[in-house]
Amino acid sequence: MQLIDKNVIAKKRSGRLTLNNAMKWIFFLCTMVGLIVLVTLIVDTLMDAVGYLNMDFLTNFSSSRVESAGFYGAIIGSLWLMFVTVPVAIFLSVATALYLEEYAPKNKVTDFIKINISNLAGVPSVVFGLLGLAIFVRAMAMGNSVLAAGLTLALMILPVIVVSSQEAIRSVPSTVREASIGMGATKWQTVSRIILPAAIPGIITGIILAISRAIGETAPLVVIGVPTTLLVTPDGFLDSFQAMPMQIYAWIKMPQEEFQYLAAAGIIVLLAILILMNSVAIFIRNKFSRRY
Amino acid sequence: MSNYNIQEMIQKNKSNKGAVVEKSIPVILFLITSVSILATIGILYTLISQSLEFFSRESFMTFITSANWSPYGAEPEFGIWALVMGTMKVVAIATVFAVPVGLGAAIYLSEYATERVRKIIKPILEVLAGIPTVVYGFFAINFVTPVLQSIWPEISLYNAISAGLVVGIMIIPMIASLSEDAMSSVPNSMREGSLGMGATRLETTFKIVLPAAVSGIIASIVLAVSRAIGETMIVSIAAGSTPNASLDITSSLQTMTGFIVQITSGDAAYGSSLYFSLFAVGMTLFVMTFTMNIISQWITKRYREEY
């Protein structure tokens, strides 16, 4: 006696299996969209940039003439910008993460701070630009200086570093903490000598990713009014400056077609720097991440 | 030797300096932490005070009811709906494009891909998420728009569809990776139960995994829409600068963020209505993204299923 007719089952299943397979390929295509776009974007930009990407481009200041225009001022300006943004952002956000993870009591104030930080992460960058314009540029009279832009970007990446640092600190197991306390170390000794060193690789990875976001950020700089036609590099933090993404944006907006090629060359330089930074971040993550 | 007593030693070595440090560290850290609150207060104060200044000069009713945004000239009219419509058109196109693609990618990564494939593709998505938006803007105007024009010649140089598609590309990694997280956290026992009953992977995905992960997926989409609303450089470069409330996606428009960039990159005289209008637009933008973020957090909290 045959309870199950295999042929009937196979017939019924084959349609469903075909659908399953077809959809699998559609899902795979969806995944590939990202890769295809990435490759197209890089190849297209490279093709535009070839011929403009040379030593002159890296050593000349910006200019209204295509043949003598370069990226030097923008590269140096972005470096200056990071000299302000990075230390300020690291100082503020690592301290915040330490407080929230190690010291904060469980109460309404702490909850409020946490909600506040996650909301700050969702504020559009152009709104941070408006904050910088009204507070730093106007009210504090810093003008469109390195300091004003650097502080604005530092506030913008603060939530990013806080969240990644919190995760890094949280992943240090409590056994390590208890061992330190058990040996008679005080709270601060445990935090500064045991927990922070153990969490450092995770924290640094988060910092590098945040910096690479800050370096490519354009909108706040436009709002603050970062110039694009300077012929000097800044001498101090209160001087005005140029920045890479800002220069690229200015070139894209130029009506002459040649400037599009300059923009492409600038993009290649910017992307090269970003890829380098991301690789360092991934290297640190893989090399130093310890599993307890 | 015999005179020493461990407890005395501890007492002696416990210096006052140490105690002061222990007491002051939490206070110092708390003070630094409050900078993040100051930032929020700064944003709110800036937007509200400057917007109030704007509304003391221009009509608030016109602002929220009119769809005519013509800020220049002797008789300017500030009707935010022209800019909101511009933003909405771009965001709608981006969402329609990015949600199916992002979800498809999430389903593939979470339900079909082998561990090896996943390890290759996830970093690519991370790179895509890290590309500066000004680069996407360049891509939109120099690649996507010409390609679209070659198949659909009526499209003008600045248009909603090209900007929308590229904003969509920008938010795909976000939808894909957050939705994948939500789907991966559905326990395997549920999948195995379904597969064991003879369901195919596709049926398991649509009838078991997606319903179980739906709160995380919706939260990720809302968050991505909020990002798209606040996106600035792509729309300033590729969408144009002609505010209008039409539904036409082939012609030039202006978004809220695009307006802010246009005015600040020219010179709006400090103290003019035009200058203060920046903050009124910024306030509208802030309220919209803030609402979306709150909704996203609420969905995650309210509908999270614990397994």
Automatic annotation (TrEMBL), chain A:
Q: Which residues form the ABC transmembrane type-1 domain?
A: 75-280
Q: Which Gene3D superfamilies match?
A: MetI-like
Keyword Nucleus attributed = no
Organism whose genome encodes this protein: Salinicoccus halitifaciens
- Where does the source fall among the domains of life? Bacteria
The family annotation for this protein states: Belongs to the binding-protein-dependent transport system permease family. CysTW subfamily.
Transmembrane feature ranges: 21-43, 71-100, 120-141, 147-169, 190-211, 261-284
InterPro entries reported for this sequence: MetI-like, MetI-like_sf, Phosphate_PstA
The alphabetical list of record keywords is:
Cell membrane, Ion transport, Membrane, Nickel, Nickel transport, Transmembrane, Transmembrane helix, Transport
Q: Give the protein's recorded name.
A: Phosphate transport system permease protein PstA
This protein's record includes keyword Transmembrane helix? yes
Tell me the SUPFAM superfamilies matching this sequence. MetI-like
What Pfam families has UniProt attached to this entry?
BPD_transp_1 (PF00528)
From TrEMBL, chain B:
User: What's one GO MF term for it?
Assistant: phosphate transmembrane transporter activity
An example of a Gene Ontology BP annotation on this entry?
phosphate ion transport
Q: What is its main location?
A: membrane
Q: What membrane topology does this protein have?
A: Multi-pass membrane protein
Q: Which domain of life is it from?
A: Bacteria
Cross-referenced InterPro entries: MetI-like (IPR000515), MetI-like_sf (IPR035906), Phosphate_PstC (IPR011864)
One cellular component term from this protein's GO annotations in UniProt: plasma membrane
Q: Which residues form the ABC transmembrane type-1 domain?
A: 84-296
Where is the protein localized?
Cell membrane; Membrane
Nuclease listed as a keyword: no
Function, as annotated, reads: Part of the binding-protein-dependent transport system for phosphate; probably responsible for the translocation of the substrate across the membrane.
What name is this protein filed under?
A: Phosphate transport system permease protein
